[in-house]
Design a protein that fits this description.
The structure is a single chain. The strands form 3 sheets. Strands 1, 5, 6, 7, 8, 9, 10, 11 and 12 form a 9-stranded mixed sheet that branches. The protein has a 5-stranded mixed sheet with strand order 14-13-15-16-17, with helices on both faces. It is an alpha+beta fold. The chain has 2 domains: 14-41 and 82-323, Bira Bifunctional Protein, Domain 2 (BirA Bifunctional Protein, domain 2, 2-Layer Sandwich), CATH 3.30.930.10; 334-420, Rossmann fold, CATH 3.40.50.800. The chain has helices at residues 14-33, 80-89, 134-149, 164-173, 181-188, 196-206, 210-220, 225-231, 236-251, 296-299, 314-323, 346-358, 372-382, 392-396, 415-420; strands at residues 37-38, 44-46, 63-66, 72-75, 98-102, 105-107, 119-128, 158-163, 257-259, 273-278, 288-292, 307-313, 334-340, 363-365, 384-390, 399-404, 409-414.
Length: 429
Amino acid sequence: MDLQPVKGTRDFFPEQMRERNWLFDVWRKISLQAGFEEYDTCVLEHEELYIRKAGDEISQQLYSFEDKGGRRLSLRPEMTPSLARMILQHQRSLPMPVRWFSIPQCFRYERMTKGRRREHFQWNADIIGQPGVTAEAEILLLLISACREMGLTDSEFRIFLNDRRILNSILEKIQVPEHLHDAVLVVMDKRDKVSPENFSRMLVETGMNASQVEQLKDHLEMPELESLSMALPGCEGINALQELMGLLEIAGFRNFVQFDVTIVRGLSYYTGPVFEMNHPEKSHRAICGGGRYDSLLSTYGGEVIPAVGFGFGDVVILDVLQEHGRSPDLNRKLDFTIIPFEAAQVGTALKLAGDLRAQGWSVECNFGLKKMKKAMQQASESGAERALLLFPEEMERNEVVVRDMKLREQTNIQLEQLLQTPAGGLIRE
């Protein structure tokens, strides 16, 4: 039997679980502070929920199967379609705008590289039913707040902004037929991952001619929004980004964002502003990404409803925090470890643990019945602040020995006093 986890998946030992829980706590705290509500869905969905335009790679990355009832099902590769399904179920009764977040586990069968696995956890936050770039501003502030909560500074991360309407306007200007736009955008999303020669070749394979490819590359070399606004007068996408930048300037977060015409986002349902978070020099893969997807709900039979959101995976950000020395100190912490030294004391240890836990303390029992030196070593390794030592002689006097594991000092205390005054300067400072 192969005892390794399935390729591309992970086991979470207690050390990794502490890190994962810390990250989830940051995401949950920031979301709740901003007035978002948490939701979740089943990890299984109908396969057709994800089968979209042929250009979407995600349709080829599904973990799909047929169940015993003959239904085609899939492990969810992303959360947004599930969110759309839930909104459509109760669209008439939901007060708009909806501001929801979730932390789902997602699965994609894809080639693994640094920072990318076949399963990952992902913080999703979305605002449904709020038109205009105010929703984008709120979503971006959520991301910035989370990164600052993790200890990252504006010199260590940047949100790169673009708008799909700008890209479509460029393609229209250089006379790329509309039916080729989606395929071209999929190739453009891979620009940073392939050589310039392969990028040009892949564009030609979509149906573009050599002249159009060169014109497109010229537009992608325009680094400033102002220069593009002169090349694309009246472009709605440019106007939207200028308004968004203005809001962020007033809010005091302009230095965290930067226009980047090369940001595409591969999913075909994006309709407006799109963004990715990365190091300012783009020295690693994107930390997270998202954008506006006003048309997604309508593709499932609903109305066109304004929607904007992001997905923020757990794999890359943990690598980034480690790289910048921002990984949290997550050593195990306990208030007490109780150590009986004779079998007759096990019941007493269990009762004492139950009484202390009822008062809100974290308590571990060490029933190894080890010798003193070994027991103290295990108590130190447990992360406990205090060890409660049940020595036979002291127990006859209804006393326990309280040992401070940091100061290596100890004192005797009556059991009754311990339970009545657990602070008392002995237990918790």
